[in-house]
Fold this protein.
Amino acid sequence: MLLHYDDKKIIVGCDEAGRGCLAGPVFAAAVILPMRFSNSLINDSKKLTFEQRIEAREIILSSAVDYAIAFCSPEEIDKLNILNASILAMHRALDKLKTKFDKIIVDGNRFQKYKNHAHQCVIKGDGKYYAIAAASILAKTERDLWMLQIHEEFPQYLWNKNKGYPTKEHRMAIEKFGITPYHRKSFVICKNSMQLNLFQ
């Protein structure tokens, strides 16, 4: 894991979580870490267990120079498409930062220019740079905790386990109970999903 993309500039890492889900918002985070930050637990959030991510989250929150988390709702995802909504969520996170920065590094290969800041897309960046890995962890844990909350409202979808991703059990629950206000209507959720819009 590399410490910084450029030692001479203040770098902010960005990443999102929840692009492939059938339900819930897409969350994004922006993180600026100290110049000499290092921690063996900080890595691509997908490589960590839920418990490790929660532990890493606390390390990031207490160590970061600055951080912010934002999201786009299922309604915004349906209106904008998931790529544009993911980028908008990252822009919203950047909007919330109080620290001035020089450059943005983003996980993946797609981003839209944020104001006048330079940016660099990094394929699998959450496994290469601490700042992106930290953003991936904050976005993932924030989304997971949010899905655990709405699981209490609709427990039949097992969001406490699948977090809104298209598991077999999640799809079977949609076939049986219909879709909720938290489902993304623009996604192919199940057969005749729009006819199963029972919670509207």
